[in-house]
Amino acid sequence: MGCFGSVVVLMGLAGGAFGAEAPGSSAESAQAAIERSLGFMSREAVSWVRERKCASCHHAPMMLWTVGEARARGFAIDADAFREVESFALTPYTQPKASTPPPKEGETLAKKLSLELVYLTLAERGLPADDKMRGAVLARFIEHFRETQTSDGYWDPQFARPPVFDARAVTTLFTLWALATPPLRDAAELAPLREKALAALKANPPDDSTQSLNLRLIVNAETPLSGLEAAKARQQLLGRQNADGGWSQTPEMPSDAYSTGQTLYALAVSGAPDDAAFRRAQAFLMSTQLADGSWPMSSRPFGPEGKIAKDLRPISYFGTGWATLALLRTTPPAPAASGD
């Protein structure tokens, strides 16, 4: 994944089921795993934006998402690192928008959805209510969502490279999650966009990939009247849990932190915990975390030739973010907050 402009993520704080402790572990050890991950994500995000001069769609977004939720749940954070990455990612969206040259005769400029802005919209939940950047940033994002919805109700990804840049139905589900974010939830100009997207998804049901099912659960939790058959999706996901306690992105792939973390997160925010499934998933995540606080990931083949990414830092960072979010959602909050 390349650099597509400044971005930040702090995914929503909706829901919050606390599952049982992982077998052979305690809440304290789960909290220690979270703390190791937060340290890794802060260090790596600062290093990334300083070296690459790019917030991208992984390091800055996932750092702010996970660290922001951890802070809300009582964990101490590296406040200086958070502010540095937040400022780097958000400030460009407070500046006047650059003008786009008009298309040449006979040419159309297809506007693709920026997933960075989806994540940034979700991230605003972590901003203080009186944050001076909030109004300017959200206005830019609302404009982007209105400009990029297709005539048939979808939002198209910038390109195809799952799991992050997935099918258009999955991208649309991600966007619906963003549109459910307060204060966008009550924005009158966005209601037609939501209705059009939900109508498209109901007329052409999304596939049954793990990520698609996860997002259906999350969107339904945010918008209970979405009609996305969340109960069926939940049962399908529970039935796909692997023997090692994790979930796979596709049937032929092994369990990994991205799919396991995302699925456990989706199950946690969508209803009462399934203690047995939660314990097994927590155990998988606890047992596969590396000493530096990250989780290992491999590249998912993409394109007709089944290409493999040479740089695993982006997908490993995504996997670490999802694993951390899942542990945050299924572990009791830290006993006391310190260090904002």
Characterization of this structure:
The protein is mainly α and 340 residues long. It has twelve helices and no strands. The longest helix has 26 residues, at 27-52. It is globular, with a radius of gyration of 19 Å. It starts with 26 loop residues before the first helix and ends in an 11-residue tail after the last helix.
Tell me briefly what this model is.
The protein is mostly helical and 340 residues long.
**Estimated helix fraction:** 40-55%
Report the sheet with the most strands, covering strand number, pairing sense and barrel closure: none
Number of strands: 0
Outline type: globular
End-to-end separation in angstroms reads 31 Å
Compute the number of helices.
12
Q: Tell me the Rg in angstroms.
A: 19 Å
Runs in which pLDDT lies below 50 for 5 or more consecutive residues are 1-25
Provide mean pLDDT, rounded.
84
In percent terms, what proportion of residues is strand?
under 5%
What is the H-and-E element order?
Answer: HHHHHHHHHHHH
Structural class: mainly alpha
Features:
340 residues, 0% strand, mainly alpha, 12 helices
Layout of helices and strands:
Elements: H1 27-52, H2 59-72, H3 79-90, H4 115-123, H5 134-148, H6 168-179, H7 191-203, H8 210-222, H9 230-239, H10 257-270, H11 275-288, H12 313-329
Helix pairs in contact: 1-2, 1-3, 1-12, 2-3, 2-4, 2-12, 4-5, 4-6, 6-7, 6-8, 8-9, 8-10, 10-11, 10-12
